[in-house]
User: Fold this.
Amino acid sequence: MAGDGGFVLLPSGVSATVLDTAELSPREAYGVLTSLVVPRPIAWVSTVGRDGRGNLAPFSYFQAVCSRPPTVMLSIAWRPDGTPKDTLRNILDTEAFSISVVDAPLAESMNRTSAEFPPGTSEWEAVGIASAPGSRIPVPRVAEAGAALECRLVHAVPMGTGRSGAPSVTVVFGRVVAVVVRDDLVVRDTSGRPCGVDGKRIAPVGRLGGTAYVTTDHRFDLSRPKVPEEEPA
Ligand SMILES: Cc1cc2nc3c(=O)[nH]c(=O)nc-3n(C[C@H](O)[C@H](O)[C@H](O)COP(=O)(O)O)c2cc1C
Assistant:
């Protein structure tokens, strides 16, 4: 039923509860957001530290936010002890990171790289993931991934305050300077110039709330609506 302002009103008999976010613990707020903002794409982020050590970890607070110039964002939480996660520290130090796309066959390996390994351990070796060299940045990507976005840091925005007094998260914005695409996924224009990616040939994995994930087995299309023409009088 549409109200005067065009809003859909709750049918009578259906009640709703307001969760006032000021009353929720950070853990509860996390649970609510990650259950409702779904499915989230997963950025499998590789970085290299100042010491040359490689790091690889997944992040689902991740989105593309601008096409001109191509830009993505990641939100990386600080650890409870007030230190940055290795990924964030490396991005702030080197200003470069690579995002490998996670498809279904890579999901388990991706998840294993999210473990808190002891300091000094490289997830590449610990989980046994093959890397391929970066093309425009000195950061490797996951060799088996269908595509990787090579990024340079443009902004790092701290947000909120954790128990330790450190930021709750730092949101990093990265300019995508190159996209490395497996040859069978490349789309070319009539002159043979590579100009895109065949999304129908990728089986991406998305993250839902808790430990749930989703694939895109069932797809359907919806054309964008046109502005309705005025009804003839
Ligand atoms: C699918 C998935 C998504 C995740 N998304 C995030 C995220 O958006 N932000 C975050 O701070 N941690 C996220 N994590 C947890 C990190 O991957 C985890 O803390 C990891 O140990 C960080 O590694 P690092 O210290 O090597 O950077 C996620 C874990 C998984 C499995």
